Structure formats: C-alpha cells, structure tokens
Amino acid sequence: MAQIGHFDATQVAPADDYSPIPPGEYAAQITDSELKPTSKGGHRLELTFEVSDGPAKGRKVWANLNLDNPNPKAVEIAQRELSAICHAIGKLQVSDSQELHYKPMTIRVEIETQEGYKPKNVIKAYKPSTGGLGNAPATGTAPTAAASGASPSDGAKPFWANKAA
Known about the structure:
The chain is an alpha+beta fold. Helices cover about 15% and strands about 30% of the residues. It has helices at about 70-90, 145-150, and strands spanning about 25-35, 45-50, 60-70, 105-110, 120-130. The longest helix has 18 residues, at about 70-90. The protein starts with about 25 loop residues before the first strand and ends in a 17-residue tail after the last helix. The relative contact order is 0.20.
C-alpha cells in the first residue's frame, strides 16, 4: 500500500482512450499545430485533429507533414497534403499554421498496422465539411504556391519556415 495524499478525481479528467477510431469519414477540425525538427535535419508540421461529431466526438487524430526535408519526395507529399487541407477549409493562402485551426472539414481515417507497433490512425483524405459545422469552402479553385507551402514569389518564407525549431 502507498500513501498518495488526498486525490480528487473530480478535479482531473480521466485518461484518454488511445485506441484507434474505426475507419471512416469524420467531421473534424485542427485544434493544434507545432513545427518540430526531424531526425534527418528538416522540420515537420504536427497537426492535431479533433473529431467534432458522432460517436468519436472529442477523439484526436494526428498528421505529420514533412515540409522541410532532405528527401524532395517527402516534401512533395507534405505540400500536397497541406494543399488538400487548405482546399478542404477554403483557405488557400496561409502564412501561419494557426490559420488552419478550428476550421471544419471532413477527414477520411484508416487504421495502419506495422510489425512491432500498435495499430494507429492515419488520415488518408481531407474534404470540405459536409455537416452544419461552418462555412463551406469555395470549389473549383486551382492550388497556389502559398497553398502548397511553396515560397511566395516575393521571396518571403512560407509560414512553416518561420517557426523556431
């Protein structure tokens, strides 16, 4: 037996369920973002999505975008994913990842399994919101350099390159 002092569980939220949510489409929004260094000398944008409706309401799913990486293919994939997010929320030019926060969208989630690791959720698609969660984004617009994360023509750095490591 161990003396732990007085603990009041009404003052602390219970631990979250970290098991994957079932595959499917979910109404969600980005609630947090952070730029972090990668082990290969680049930077990844970590995005936290929160499901905003249905049985999984409040559950979180994460995406990591390698926006600055020695591997050009990783950068291309990350820029295309960021462009999909921008198109889904109808914000085609961003200079700070916080501009992506709290904008409704629909995400398609799948479960990924790798030998030696627990199954985890991965986001496979980003679409405009289909529910009554906010303004529907404009459609029929072409991607822009800013939406893809590329440097604007004025020479300014994209938002992810301005963050401290």
